[in-house]
Design brief:
Blueprint lengths: L1 H12 L4 H4 L4 H13 L3 H6 L8 H5 L12 H11 L5 H10 L1 E6 L12 E5 H8 L2 H9 L16 H6 L1 H10 L10 E2 L3 H4 L16 E2 L19 H19 L1
Parallel strand pairs: 2-4
Antiparallel strand pairs: 1-2, 1-3
Pfam families: DUF3425
């Protein structure tokens, strides 16, 4: 299936992204999108998440299909009009994804915020703070983090959100980040990087308030890109595709 192929692709070329891939259900939305693109029927279209359904411009223009992976149609249109020929388009789309965020009252997350305060948290920051399963196991076994299993929100301070696996995972659940693009907005810092992408028609997807962050915690600024495809990886991918197709059609 398309979902299996996405899983293999990320497992082979983007292992650092797997902690993002599963909890956000990113694979589900993009699998449905790609399935419709390969088999454009009314039934397949109905399964595509509304955020990923094509705009009128997408239907009429030719452009790099990686743009389709952005869940904001206004940004997709701008990417098509301004960056369709840009050889760095994949980096731009990854920069956009790295700035997905969810708005929240910061007093629900951090005790040092005494009153309701509008803010937002970047999804990629929380994904990194949650760690992978192995990191979580080590954290649970580490006496210094033994209390993490019983940690509650609001956390003592902002640093705890990004240093405690338990606090990070509770933040992920509280903000319902697993519900996908319906809740996501864009960190306004993105438009400092790409001012040409901003206009009044995208204001409704721009987060407001204060970004929750901890500068003392080192996090990757951008979701890692896929590794360069080599012949060995391509061979594995093709063999798996042949096998999957044989099983499905059997």
């Amino acid at each position: 299936s398309t979902s299996l192929m996405f899983s293999l692709f990320n497992g082979l070329t983007r292992p650092d992204v797997l902690p993002w891939y599963t909890p956000t259900k990113w694979y589900k939305h993009l699998s449905e999108l790609v399935t419709w693109q390969l088999h454009p029927t009314r039934d397949m279209y109905a399964r595509v998440h509304p955020k990923y359904r094509p705009s009128a411009l997408q239907v009429t223009e030719s452009y790099p299909t990686f743009i389709d992976w952005c869940p904001f149609h206004a940004l997709r249109d701008k990417l098509i009009l301004m960056h369709a020929a840009n050889t760095r388009i994949d980096e731009i789309v990854l920069d956009i994804a790295s700035h997905y965020c969810v708005e929240v009252d910061l007093s629900k997350l951090v005790r040092t915020v005494p009153r309701p305060t509008p803010g937002y948290v970047r999804l990629w920051d929380i994904i990194q703070a949650m760690g992978d399963d192995e990191a979580a196991k080590q954290s649970d076994l580490d006496p210094l983090h033994r209390d993490d299993a019983a940690a509650l929100l609001p956390a003592p301070d902002a640093a705890s959100i990004f240093q405690s696996v338990s606090h990070a995972r509770q933040t992920f659940r509280l903000l319902r980040m697993d519900e996908g693009p319906s809740l996501y907005k864009i960190d306004p810092a993105l438009f400092n990087m790409y001012p040409e992408l901003y206009s009044p028609d995208v204001s409704d997807i721009v987060a407001s308030g204060t970004l929750l962050q901890c500068r003392s915690v080192q996090l990757l600024a951008r979701i890692p890109p896929p590794a360069r495809l080599d012949k060995a990886t391509l061979r594995v991918y093709r063999h798996f595709a042949d096998w999957a197709l044989t099983v499905i059609c059997a």
